[in-house]
Amino acid sequence: MILSRLRLENFKKYSAKTIEFGEGLIGIIGKNGSGKSTIFEAIFFALYGELRSKGYKDIVKNSNADAKDAVVVELEFEFDAATYRVVREFRGKAMSANAKLYKNEELITSGAKEVTSSITSLTKMSKDAFVNTLFASQKELTSLSTLKNEDRKKMIRRLLGLEKIDFVERELIEKSRELKREIEAFKEVLLGEAEIKQKEEQIKQNIASKEALVKDEKSKTEYLDALKTKEKEIKKELGVFAETKEKKQKLASQLELTKNSKNSELLNQVKLNAEFHELEDKQEKLESLKPAAKEYLSLQQQLKEQEKLREFFLKKEGLQKEQVQLREQYTKSRSDIGALEKACEGYDEFVLNAKNLEINIAVLQESVKTKQTIENELKAEIASELKQIDITNAKIAKLKELGNEGACPTCTRPLLEEYDNVVNSLVGTVNETHQKKIDEYKKQLTNVETQKSAFETEKKQKEKEFSEIVSSVKIIESKLKDLKAAQEHFALVEQKGLKNKQELKELEAYSYDEKAHEKIRSDFASLEPKYKLYVSHETELKRLPVVKADLALVSKRIEDLREQYKKKEAEFNLVIYDEEKHKAKLAEHDELLKAIDAKTALLMEIKVKVAKIEGEIKNIEASLNNNEAQKKKVQSKKDDLLDYEKIKASLTEFKTRLNAKIAPRISEIASEMYARITKGKYQHIEVSNDFDFFIYDEGKKYPIERFSGGEIDLANLVLRIAISKTLTELSGASSIGFLAFDEVFGSQDESRRMEILEAFHTIKEQYRQIFLISHEMEIKEMFERVVEL
Fold first, then answer.
1. Any idea what the CATH number is for the domain that residue 430 is in?
2. 374-411 pLDDT tens trace
3. What angle, rounded to 10 degrees, do the helices at 149-160 and 162-189 form?
4. Residue 30's closest CA among 741, 779, 745, 775?
5. 65 Rama class: left (phi>0) / alpha (psi -120 to 50) / beta
6. Which residues of 412-446 are buried (b: 16+ CB within 10 A; e: fewer)?
7. What contacts 24+ positions apart, CB below 8 Å, involve 223-230?
8. Residue 358 domain-assigned (yes or no)
9. Does any domain span residue 69?
10. CA separation for the pair 694, 335 (Å, rounded)
11. Does some domain include residue 482?
12. Where's the Rad50/SbcC-type AAA domain (predicted)?
């Protein structure tokens, strides 16, 4: 396998990066944190779909990429003269994985798992083998010589994949111990030979006891079957007896029923005959009552007519009385209407006067308000003038207090000789101006108050007159309502009188004789008992045809029942039933049942014993069978233990052979390279089966720790390359043509770095590509190709 080109999109720290690798000694050069190791993480991810650390989905995407951006890793490589291209990507928020593998630009497989499987099959290397074989770090190189023997042994065995064999071997040992413990545990529960023989003898004894019981059961069963057969015969005879008895009882019951039915019909015949004769008597009486019934119905009609005439008569009397009352009401209503009409005269005049008074009162009220306003204004003027007088008097008092040296209250200059003039002027202003105004205002105020008082007096008089007129109007309005009601009542009385007059005229056509009405009523009452008797007989006689028909039907049924009774009696006499024999047979049957129950109980006891013996036999057989099954399990576990011991022995032998083959092969490869690098100074490096390292110097073997730091570094390098080549050979991946070393220079000085680079130049013909990852910028001229990051 030769790596050709790597393309990254949004992978870890790379937003977009394409690298052409080329061949030879290739330097991956860059400062710490520049993404050197990421290159080989991407290669590993492209081939196997994983990073060396878990949770790769959370860290694989570039932090500057958008959520919708895909993570893409594309690797081109050559393998067995063919060009391959593998593309892996994650898309979406869920980072869904997808992968494709092309051979010579033709798609050969797709899907993350499918591509990984194809790569593994192609390279013949698992992901762990790929990492351990083709990648090495400074830590691994220095560990080869610096670690303790046991730790170094573990590391190399891990690189070679031998720890898996160790794990299988430990599992085999643990499984063998577990099987031995289980086999020992089974010995505790398995039966001994003496116990097995005892249980087999017990089974034989139980079988003999069971056979004896079965033989006894058979004889008792035969006897019981004979008893049951006899019981069935007796039961059959009892059935005949019971059937005959039941038939006899049924016929006796039918005879009794027929006899009772005949007696019931005879009684019914007697009742019907009595009723028939009674009805014939009533028919004769009905004929004699016919004239009275006819007269009763006639009087009933006459009575209805008299009741109607009496009703008309009473109505006429009522109307006449009502007319007298209506005439009185008519006269009174006319009189009341006249009086009310007279009392309501002058209503319109009162209303008009009231309205005029209301207007006059409103005018007077307005006049009073006007005078009140003028009065208020005059009082305000007087108050204002009084205030001015008070102010002027205060000034005069102030001037008198200051004397003639005081300041003029108007211009504020000293008064001096003008003092008296100013004081006299102010006094004149009070007396001549303000007081005159006050006197004038008071005269006007007196006139206004007199006028206001006159208006208020007139207003009160008008209000009194208005109140009296309003009272009169209300009285007349009340009487007007009474007048309207009286007129409406008068109209009703007049209308009712005319209606009654018309009805009286119509009732004049009817006349009513109270004596004649009383006589008809008396005659009707005397005939009523005879009529009721007539109606009762007439109703009862409706049953006469029915009674005749019932008599004929009853007579026929009596005859039929007589014939039926004779037949049943003859049939009853023909049935022969012996009750004594029946009782004797029942007693015999009871005794037989007791014997059957006794024998059945004995048989059940025998069956219980047989079942108990069979249960014991089954338990013993189950114990023996279980013992046999446990023996088979023990044997199976012994066979498994033998197989594990054989596998463990084979694995030990395989490990011995593998160790014998691996250590010499590592020694061979390492010795050849070390001799070439040291230009023949050291001919051989020995690797023991415990992976201890020795260098031969002038034919003598020395531990690796004896030599200088530079020699040890070179030894570690060739040993690590030898381990990789050995791993490649073991896995069958002979077409892998590159190695990668991460920071193998460590902290060595310049001379030792140059020695290591010379060593790589010396062995480069064995690999088409050797990648060296380093942060040492000054050594980049030593590489045939440089990828600078």
1. 1.10.287
2. 989 989 988 988 888 888 888 888 878 877 666 555 54
3. 100
4. 775
5. beta
6. eeebeeebeebbeebeebbeeebeebbeebeebbe
7. 223/599, 224/596, 224/599, 224/600, 224/603, 227/592, 227/595, 227/596, 227/599, 228/596, 230/592
8. yes
9. no
10. 168
11. yes
12. 5-206
φ, ψ at 482 (rounded to 5°) = -60, -40
520: exposed, middle or buried (Cβ count in 10 Å: 0-12, 13-18, 19+)? buried
Q: What is the spatial distance between Cα 513 and Cα 522, in angstroms, rounded to a whole number?
A: 15
Cα 276 to Cα 274: distance, rounded to the nearest angstrom: 5
For 202-245, how does the pLDDT look when each residue is reduced to its tens digit (9 = 90+)?
888 888 888 888 888 888 888 888 888 888 888 888 888 888 88
Beta strands 135-137; 106-110: pairing state: unpaired
Report the residue count for the chain: 789
- How far is the C-alpha of 238 from the C-alpha of 752, rounded, in Å? 130
pTM value is 0.42
Widest distance between CA atoms in the chain: 189
CA distances from 786 to 167, 776, 778 (A): 43, 12, 12
Six-digit token pair at 682?
């050291």
Burial of residue 26 (CB within 10 Å: 0-12, 13-18, 19+) is buried
Which helix (H) or strand (E) covers residue 29, if one does? strand 24-29
Going by C-alpha positions, the residue among 362, 314, 260 that lies closest to residue 568 is 260
Pairing of strands 14-20, 738-742: unpaired
Q: From edge to edge, which strands make up the β-sheet containing 2-11?
A: 14-20, 2-11, 71-79, 82-91, 96-103, 106-110
In which domain, by residue range, is 445 found? 347-490
By DSSP bridging, strand 769-774 and strand 693-697 are unpaired
What are the residues whose beta carbons fall under 8 Å from the beta carbon of 341, sequence distance 6 or more?
483
Number of domains in the chain: 1
In-domain check, residue 484: yes
